[in-house]
Specification:
With about 425 residues, the chain is α+β, with helices and mostly antiparallel strands. It contains 16 helices and 12 strands. Strand 1 and strand 2 (about 30-35) form a beta hairpin.
């Protein structure tokens, strides 16, 4: 992963053994599956047949009641609770708040700078958006403490689960315990607010606390809220920051695409009085910009792959997958398959002009089927608002080569340093 040769390694396995083969990963017997049929098999299989299977470090740091480790009715119940906040009908009311966070971030960290490192700044931005919109934690000492815990926690999610002093895993476990206690404090505060002021869906935690059985939904336990808030922290932070970083990298290398994005965004900017926030209607006009984001996700998906667990003996592809074995698949494999996407190394947003032209279960950065990522719409809004202000306020030039590694998310060389020029000076 760190040498960014994992795809080549898997391609070699496919050439040798075909689209299904066995190996050992994280000390467990594992089946690697590849192709559209494999993706469909993973994403649509009944929850009594295949369950989520995260590595031990991820599960211990986030907690075992997070959505990725639940199956059957528990998965459906918790997912439904998260979707109640993350669905478009709810999120359209938060575009203005996200707009304000992006503007404030650019003013603090980008304006007046000649050179910046994009990835660390994008991580700062996405973390601040998460704190504001999902937790209701505004700028200040509490948010800074959250940030310090979060940084320490996230580095151990893919580490070897050796709980010894001074190991990465041990430090992450301790940071996780601190973060979970902070979330419990938030839950207690918001529960008191709910009792005093009534139901309100102003942030994710409040929304989850508001779910009552009279709404025909079963309330989440406190530990379920804590573990799933932890999950949303990591999922929303890493994926969005990586996506926006690589959009900037690709736009710097593709002048024609940059010009088309700029034209689309300038037309929207012209309709906005000075200082006015973007709206949901503005985002619906950013069709080309989102196609650029989709093509970026095709070429550099933030997640490399995932794990499931066979809950019983499964017949697949003429083979028996024994109960208890891990099932592993990798997202980039179908994304870069020339039989699915002609000239896969070419950056071409027009691939996504027509949904029908993309074969089912071949483009899976957000998963697919009943387990598609509930944060898809949140990521779309966050990305479009950020790219709008970046391209209308700046032009940039890369200061390092185009290489990147995975740890496990894609990390561009030196965090993608760029030379910035304000557009009014261009």
């Amino acid at each position: 992963m760190r040498a960014n040769t994992a795809e080549k390694w898997l391609e070699e396995r496919i050439r040798k053994y075909g689209p299904i083969s066995k190996l050992s990963l994280f000390g467990k017997p594992t089946v690697f599956v590849y192709g559209q049929a494999a993706n469909k098999f993973v994403y649509t299989s009944d929850s009594s047949t295949i369950g989520h299977q995260q590595n031990q470090s991820f599960r211990m740091i986030l907690g075992d009641r997070n959505l990725f480790d639940l199956s059957a009715e528990d998965h459906k119940r918790v997912r439904g609770a998260l979707v109640s906040f993350l669905k478009p009908e709810s999120l359209k009311h938060y575009v203005g708040k996200m707009d304000g966070e992006v503007k404030q971030h650019l003013e603090m960290h980008w304006q007046g700078k000649q050179q910046v490192q994009v990835l660390p700044l994008m991580k700062t931005l996405t973390f601040n958006i998460i704190c504001s919109l999902l937790f209701g934690v505004e700028r200040g000492a509490r948010r800074e403490k959250f940030k310090a815990c979060f940084k320490e926690m996230i580095v151990g999610t893919w580490s070897a689960p050796l709980n010894l002093p001074f190991t990465r895993y041990n430090r992450s476990l301790r940071a996780s315990a601190t973060a979970q206690n902070m979330i419990k404090d938030l839950i207690r505060e918001k529960r008191v607010e709910l009792e005093q002021k009534g139901a309100s869906h102003q942030d994710l935690i409040t929304c989850l606390l508001s779910i009552r059985k009279e709404d025909n939904e079963e309330a989440l336990t406190e530990i379920e809220i804590v573990h799933n808030v932890m999950l949303v922290m990591i999922a929303g932070h890493d994926t969005s920051s990586v996506l926006m970083t690589f959009i900037m990298r690709l736009l710097a290398n593709e002048p024609a695409v940059y010009a088309a994005v700029l034209q689309e965004q300038e037309e929207i900017a012209k309709t906005k009085p000075s200082g006015e926030f973007l709206t949901w209607e503005d985002l619906t006009k950013m069709k080309y910009t989102w196609r650029v984001a989709m093509e970026t996700l095709r070429m550099v998906p933030p997640g490399f792959g995932g794990f499931r667990k066979a809950l019983k003996d499964i017949e697949y592809g003429g083979y028996l997958i024994p109960k208890g074995w891990q099932i592993f698949w990798a997202m980039p494999m179908t994304h870069m398959d020339s039989n699915i996407f002609p000239e896969p190394s070419k950056f071409d947003p027009s691939r996504f002009e027509n949904k029908a032209s993309v074969p089912p279960y071949s483009f899976v950065p957000f998963g697919g089927g009943p387990r598609i990522c509930p944060g898809y719409e949140f990521t779309r809004i966050e990305t479009l608002v950020t790219i709008h202000y970046l391209v209308t306020q700046f032009t940039w030039k890369l200061c390092a080569d185009n290489s990147f590694s995975r740890d496990p998310m894609p990390v561009p060389t030196q965090g993608l340093p760029v030379k910035l020029v304000p557009r009014k000076l261009c």
